[in-house]
Amino acid sequence: MASGGPQLIALDVDGTLLDTGSPVSERVANAVRAAVAAGAHVVITTGRTVLTTRPVLTELGLIEGHALCSNGAVHVDVAKGVPITVQDFDPAPAVAALRALIPEMIFAVEKVGVGYWATGVSPGEYSIGEYLLVDDGALSSEPTPRLNGWWPQGSLDEMLGLLGKLHVPGASWVHGEFGPWLTVSRQGVSKGWALERLRLALDIPHAATLAIGDGYNDREMLSWAAHSVAMANAPTAVQDLADEVTSTVTDDGVATILERWFTN
Asked: Any idea of the CA torsion for 175, 224, 200, 2, to the nearest 10 degrees?
């Protein structure tokens, strides 16, 4: 890490900044605000949509800067509250391939700033925005930054075994930590990819980058950062990628790291 502390700080949300369903703790919020007050670019870098990221930005008091949503596919101008760029792809080939591989899979595609179109009801954070039930044809009819899949009858291990046979040109996928979930996006798009684009645009030295995360969708982000930190609640495979492991989300692991450089 460059002397003087990190200048570009990428923070995952669920399992990192907050325990899903709970607010950001006062200590973590204060640490984030102290980093911003010191001039650091704090970039919320999340699998969440724009709609479900906005309340987190409000909790943290972030009123300007950048946020990377949908695993880096949607770059948001925080001050305006709208996307600057959207990296989308045609979901139809992935839907067809996955339907043939796992016929019972429930799909959902993100409609940026609106909500989801889905082929069924699945557990998750869809309380903000539209949730419209459609068939595979309608679901596949428009480009999207993200296709989610959930296999209600299967297990994560069973799904991973089948996904070894999945090949969709122009697309890549990542599975979740808990249960038979996966997310498909445009080939090459990830949190790390989006952060590198942002770093270059902001002209920040790579040595001054910090990333903190806990999930499989954080792997590219952790590999990208000059200094990477995994949460203690992260899977072992994610912890093994990081330069260090901090305490759990419920023990304010993000604050433990940020307070090295930033205090109110």
From this structure: 150
Q: How many residues does the chain have?
A: 264
Give the CA distances from residue 121 to residues 92, 99, 109, 125, 134, in Å, rounded to whole numbers and listed in that order. 20, 16, 12, 11, 11
Contacting residues for 88 by C-beta, under 8 A, at least 6 apart? 73, 143, 144, 145, 186
Per-residue pLDDT of 120-143, as tens digits, reads 988 765 567 889 999 999 999 999
Backbone angles phi, psi at 23, to 5 degrees: -75, 165
Tokens for 250, please give them.
Answer: 């419920």
What span, in angstroms and rounded, lies between the C-alpha atoms of 174 and 172? 7
Q: Is 236 helix (H, G, I), strand (E, B) or coil?
A: helix
Q: Nearest 5°: phi and psi at 227?
A: -130, 120
Report the C-alpha gap between 229 and 222 in whole angstroms.
Answer: 7
0.90 exceeded by pTM: yes
- Cα–Cα nearest to 172, from 39, 246, 72: 72
Residue 263 phi, psi dihedral angles, 5° rounding: -140, 150
